[in-house]
């Protein structure tokens, strides 16, 4: 590979400079490490759309139009939500979907579990015997407490809560010893 005259390699090889400063740019927006999948996010959007129309049976096309999601994606989500018994489906000309229970009785945790399975930050957070290092793990108890706080927090938020406008500022304090989530 040919080098331009005056480039750093040429100058250091000739003994003209001894130090090269290379700028290192930090990533402006590092990717989130802990997050729900896009489909799970979309499932909450679909469920809040249905919850906003409690007296109606909405068609898949109506839900797709209102949420601005692709029809096949909405169909896939409704199938998973139906298997989890979070929505009821009705066939026929006036068929569609409605919530299986009132929005206040459906937790965010149930929606997450319908798409993702059991909530667990680590394998050992889901249940016993999931990790071969379980017996000698020094951080298992801490991860289980963290998992418990996350699970309690998701169960404390109902679909009806998701319909409400977000408060101006909300603090969440977590007591790590007990794993209890406290909202202020």
Question: How would you explain this protein's 3D organization?
Answer:
The chain is built from eight helices and four strands; from the N terminus they run ααααββααααββ. The chain is mainly α and 184 residues long. The chain has a domain of 128 residues: Arc Repressor Mutant, subunit A. The strands form two sheets. The protein has a two-stranded antiparallel ribbon with strand order 1-2. The chain has a two-stranded antiparallel ribbon with strand order 3-4. A hairpin with a 5-residue loop joins strand 1 and strand 2. Helix 2 crosses helix 3, helix 2 packs across helix 4 and helix 3 crosses helix 4. The termini are far apart. The mean pLDDT is 82.
Short description:
The chain is mainly alpha-helical and 184 residues long.
List keywords for this structure.
184 residues; two-stranded antiparallel ribbon; two-stranded antiparallel sheet; Arc Repressor Mutant, subunit A
Work out the helicity level.
40-55%
CATH architecture of the domain at 38-118 and 137-183: Orthogonal Bundle
Strand order of the largest sheet: 1-2
Element-level helix/strand string: HHHHEEHHHHEE
Work out the radius of gyration: 25 Å
């Amino acid at each position: 590979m040919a080098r331009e005259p005056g480039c750093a390699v040429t100058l250091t090889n000739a003994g003209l400079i001894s130090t090269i400063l290379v700028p290192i740019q930090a990533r402006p927006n590092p990717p989130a490490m802990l997050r729900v999948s896009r489909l799970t996010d979309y499932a909450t959007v679909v469920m809040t759309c249905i919850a906003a129309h409690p007296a109606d049976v909405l068609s898949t096309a109506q839900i797709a139009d209102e949420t601005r999601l692709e029809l096949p994606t909405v169909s896939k989500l409704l199938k998973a939500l139906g298997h989890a018994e979070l929505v009821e489906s009705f066939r026929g000309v006036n068929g569609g979907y409605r919530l299986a229970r009132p929005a206040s009785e459906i937790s965010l945790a149930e929606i997450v579990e319908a798409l993702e399975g059991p909530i667990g930050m680590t394998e050992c957070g889901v249940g016993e015997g999931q990790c071969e290092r379980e017996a000698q793990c020094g951080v298992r108890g801490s991860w289980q407490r963290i998992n418990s706080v996350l699970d309690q927090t998701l169960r404390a938020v109902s679909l009806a809560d998701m319909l409400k406008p977000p408060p101006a500022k909300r603090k969440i304090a977590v007591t790590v010893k007990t794993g209890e989530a406290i909202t202020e």
